[in-house]
Amino acid sequence: MVAASSVQITGLPGRDTECVAVQRLVDGLPDAGGALLVWGEPGAGRSVLVGYAHRYATRCHRLAGAGLADEAALSYAGLQRLLDPLLDRADALPEPQRGVLRRTLAGAGCPADHRLALSMAVLGLLAAAARERSLLCTVDDVDRGDPPTAEVLGFVARRLRHLPVAMLLTAGTDAVAAGVPRHRLRPLDDRAGAALLTDRLPGLAPRVARELTAVAGGNPQALADLAEVLTPGQCRGEEPLPDGPPLDGALGRGYRGRLAGLPADTRRMLLLAALDSDGDPATLGRAARADGTSIEALAPAEAAGLVRVGPERVALAQPLARAVVAADATLAERRAAHLLLAGVLDSPGQHLRRTLHRAAAAEGPDPVLAAELEAVAGGAGGDDGVAALHRAAELSGEPRQASARLVAAAGRAWAAGQPRRAGRLLAEAAAAGPVDPVAAGRAELLRGELELRCGSPSRASTTLLAAARAVSGVDRIAALGALVRAGEAACHTGDQFRYAEVARRVAVLRRAEDPPDAELLTALAAGVAATLRGDHERGGPALRRAVVLGNRLTGPALTPAALTGAAVAGLLVAVDSVAHRLAERAVELAGARGEVSALPRALELRAIAEYWLGRHEAAADTSREGLRVARDTGQVNSAGVHLGMLAVLAAVRADRETSLCRIREIGEAPAPHSRPRALAQWALAVLDLVNGRHEAAAARLAALARPGTGRGQVLIQVMATPYLVEAAAGAGRRPAATAALAVFDQWASSTASPSRRALSARCRALLAARGSADAERGFRTALRLHPADTGAFERARTELLLGRELRRSRRPRDAREHLHAARETFGLLGLTVWAEQATTELRAAGESVGTPELPAARLLTGQQLRIAQLVAEGATNREIATRMFLSTRTVDHHLRNIFHRLGIRSRTELARALH
Fold this sequence. Notes:
Helix content is 65%, strand content 4%. By secondary structure, it is mainly alpha-helical. Strand 3, helix 6 and strand 4 (165-171) form a beta-alpha-beta unit.
């Protein structure tokens, strides 16, 4: 007999935890039985998991049933279908139980005082069937069938502990089988969604897979339905993706089937819920009373898994369910529902929603209503603001006005982090007819912004330059913003030489009487251009002026974009704390205004500032947040930068596994000289350096840019210069190191930053002759310059390098002091690999030292420590994932790393290690 545990079965994408739970349930047999309720929305994969259980339980008898909506009114119909294969064993039951069971399954019903006997009979029948071989009993959609069957199965499921019977129940809600262990099927994360899609569509672009996972809300069936309708161009990412799963797909048909069986008043209430995007129970209650019913009419729809009714919100299961409900109603029914909702939204704060419902019920052009919509949309953000402007365009009587409103709606959609919606609105604007020059120019600005963040930065540069020319005569500040973004696109692609043209055109638009926001942009462009060509004498003052202006902005001029521009300037003149504060203000302002699309860039700059401040854990946390938001908003280019930063930060910690994982996530899509690829090369070079591969590290870093040509990632190479010099010195490639250091020295000496000057001194020491006074003097200068309050890691690296220099110069006694200091700091920072290098040097210097004993908390990253603390408190991986907004797979990954770092094997040992 083949044991189930030895059977190799391919797991379900994103359902590893659920598969393990099923395996444990089955593997416990025959020693102990048990039950599990798996619940989740339609399409979440409940039936697939049932199929997995049957494939896995090869050593068991298998019994399968399912709840059918068509039989929901027939008491015990589901029980009769489930037990029919076992009825020949009913003779083994005691007479009272046997009689009750047979009468009930024959359709005679079961009086209340016989229900216990019936439930015991079902339990006994399953036990008899499992006498020869363990039994797996599954009932899919138990909540869709007749309630009496669900009650009996719940009774049985609670009493299987001492029987060789495992029961797996699935439902759309957890309001069945009380007392039975339960597990919710949550939406798939990006990785699982991509795995499901690429299994059906090999070669699907990774960016497309991520976007489709968002479109589907992580629903597996929705993803499968989307995979059926994609065109080849959509698979390659060359055509716009669908707004949602197809209405006629399997999931849409399933929703429509559930909708068809509902009472008329339930369907009317469900339509009201589908059309009221706010989902306010009070509003729906008033609408229900006006319609002669009550919100309780939604109960059958809730039981069918179409809607969730809570005290704060009434929400349809998925956007697709909302679309199916609306599409299934007639035009007259939809208009009547909109007018009913408009009639009950009578408070001043509900003006926008009331107008939207009136507009939805309008027929044909209505310029007056369109103007009202545009007016009330003025102060509204998010979906309602976009919807209002979109509907205003549809009701406009004049094409130019419609186009302008569509462009405005597209801008709102982009600000809210909805690039696909913004792109569709721009396409509608272009098709609406003639567009006035101002609207056309703003449309081009938005297209360029979308390309910069979500598409091709090289195309973005061209688009933004053209847009700046188009609007310069009517909106000079918008033109300046477009030029600065065009420069950002050039820097992202590694074509910094193009920034000179940007700066020239910015200078043409500059005016002596410019307001602060315009002056900030002109100063920033002039300063960046000068810095890129190495002219810090001109670049520094301009950039410092941009920083000052950024700190002074108020009123309408205070925008996330202006603050991020000032933060860029701050980083280039090495005022890291100020740059961090500006980036932080940009993050806060974007959040307060709902400008989600501005967050990834602001978080990029905050992470870089934290890197220079020596706050590596904070930088990693910021980049993780930036990556999440960038992916949620489709900003693939920003996501690549955040992945690159995470790879670098992991490499600096000598966390090879995490660094390589992040590099793999970047993939091959970014252009060879782009910023994400440069960050990946920097991370790989640090890993090479950690492992003593100096030649490989130096070659990687030297190839990042070609100083003097303006090609490649000059700014990334400058950031990585301390590693380049160390690697080149170790490999004997001094010319490459000398050239890079000259650029770094020029920059460092133009700033007032002690940390940059410390790194410069350390680099010169590395290039000095070994054992020379110049080498020692350089290291000691670096130690003197390293700030005491920040940059502990860099100071410890200098201590290590000085200790190594002294030890190699045959001064072991002098070396030990610095090596001990380095070892202690690395230990406190939890950097085991670096601490081990200091230990190795100490041993070579004649000191007998063991492996550094570090407090457990110091060996973990900030996120690892939080996970470890939750484990120590008794939280499960699923609970940790929920509390920290992570996937369970991510928690599992971190927990493995935690066990490895602490040298432990169990959660119990982990709890002891932290106390």
